[in-house]
Amino acid sequence: EWIDLSEVLNSAIQKTKWRAQEKGLDMRAYIQPDLPFVYCDGHRMAQVFMNLLDNAIRYTEQGTISAKMTKENDVVKISVEDTGIGIPEDELTYIFERFYRVEKSRSREFGGTGLGLAIVKNLVEQQGGSIRAFSEVGKGTRFEIKFLISPDIKKEEEEE
Ligand code: ATP
Ligand code: MG
Questions:
Q1: N or C: which end of the chain has fewer CB within 10 A?
Q2: How far is the CA of 99 from the centre of ligand 2 (A)?
Q3: Calpha distance 28→60 (Å, rounded)
Q4: Which helix (DSSP H) or strand (DSSP E) does residue 135 occupy?
C-alpha cells in the first residue's frame, strides 16, 4: 500500500532513542519536507528500521546516529548512519548473509545472532527496494535503502 514512510521511520527512532541516549549517543533525524508516499509495507519497514537502528546503536561507542529520508529524482532514499566501529571492506559483501558476523571476537563482545541484516535485505527486496552498505573501519557505517517511485505513479499523484 501507499504509505507515509517518514512516519514509520520517525516512530522507529522514537522507540530506539532511549537506548542511544543511555549510551550517550546523539540520535538525529532529517526528513525532507513534502516527500511522496512510498509503495511498501509499514510493518515490514518498521522491522527494517528497527534492525538498522539497533545495529547502529550496538556497534557505536560514541558520536551520532543519523537517519535521513530524502528524494532524488524518482528515488526515495533512507539512510541510517553511525560513527561506530565500522566494517572492514572485504567483509562488507557478506554482512547480508545469514549468520554472518564480522570477526568472532567482536561477536562475543556484542552478542547477536547474525540474522538481522539477512532479514532486512529480504524484507527490503520483497518490497521492490534495494539496500547497500558503506563503511570505513573506525569511522562509521551507512546503510542506504532505495525505493523507486515510477514517473507514472508520480504523475497520478500530481493529478489528484
Ligand atoms: P542480530 O541477529 O542480533 O542482528 P548481528 O547484529 O550480529 O545479530 P546483523 O545485524 O545481521 O547481525 O549484522 C551482521 C554483522 O555486521 C554484525 O555482526 C556486525 O559485525 C556487522 N554490523 C552490522 N551493522 C553494523 C554497524 N552499524 N556497524 C558496524 N558493524 C555492523
Ligand atoms: Mg543486528
A1: C
A2: 10
A3: 14
A4: strand 130-136
Cα separation, 122 vs 12, in Å, equals: 19
Which ligand neighbours the alpha carbon of 141 most closely?
1
How confident is the model over 76-129, as pLDDT tens digits? 999 999 999 999 999 999 999 988 888 766 776 777 788 899 999 999 999 999
Classify 39 as helix, strand or coil.
strand
**Is the beta carbon of 52 within 6 A of some atom in ligand 1?**
no
Q: What is the ipTM of this complex?
A: 0.98
Supply the pLDDT for residue 101: 85
Residue 159 Cα to ligand 2 middle (Å): 42
16 lines ligand 1 (CB under 6 A): no
Task: Return the bridge partners of 141, or none.
Answer: 82, 135
Question: Which of 21, 80, 77, 79 lies closest to 56, judged by CA?
Answer: 80
Beta bridge partners of 90: none
> Element (H or E) spanning 104, and its range?
helix 104-110
Q: Measured in angstroms, how far is the CA atom of residue 125 from the centroid of ligand 2?
A: 18
Q: Which amino acid is at 2?
A: W
